[in-house]
Predict the 3D structure of the following.
Amino acid sequence: MKIKIFLFALICFATTACDHIYDDERLIYVEPTQQDSIETDSAATSTLRHILLEDFTGQMCVNCPLGTEVIEQLQEAYDDRIIAVGIHGGPLGFKGNASTIGLATDLGDEYYNHWQLEYQPVGLINRHGAVNYPDWMTKVREELARTSSVSMELEATLSDNQMSINVKESSLSEAYNGNLQVWVLEDSITATQKMPNGSANKQYVHNHVLRTAVNGNWGESVILNTNEPKTHTYQLPVDTKWNTNHLSVVAFVYNDNGVEQAIKTYIKQ
């Protein structure tokens, strides 16, 4: 798999969420590394690592659209190896009112507080500590240089407003002990967003918004023995507020060492 790779041309020295990277200073092109085009086979003991980027964001956060820009650049550079999840909550989240759509949830608040985050936007990249958005590209490339010992397959279908989700996980080398987490996301949600210039954009389009956790807020325990795949199956009714044409499912396995592997699929109808 050949992937365009980009690196920051500017190293940001500030540590607050207010840093800005000018358009002409962001990226330079470099040739792909050998790792970026790795091929796997039936005898493989490792596979390409996909990156889970948990974007802690909020509709009242003026700098959060800047974080979204970085995510878009990452996805353009690395395609489906970047799995972004917009987690709305925290002090700058908005839960809505009678006239305005809010995307923040109690689940988002729980995650924000659990990780003891202090500002927005901020990201967790494979759960290796909080990272300010100007540094996301550098941290993502570091993660992409690592392989994973876990492979995953994911399928999601929709029938009669009921989602059916199948997740298959397999350890390619040593046994893996951790948790399996499954989330539902929604794209293309038009809702208000505070912008870097202080204005409110009521036609802002929010993507990869975390809607719900399928198998508990922190997932469920999973033990994977070498070359002994496990399959988990879930059924979930669709919330009437969700647009079924824009739903996707993300699944990942993680433990105290971070996220070992992640996968995403759009729901087939």
Q: What stands out?
A: The longest strand covers residues 176-186. Helices lie at 64-78, 106-114, 136-144. Residues 2 and 131 are 27 Å apart (CA to CA). The chain is about 10% helix and 40% strand.
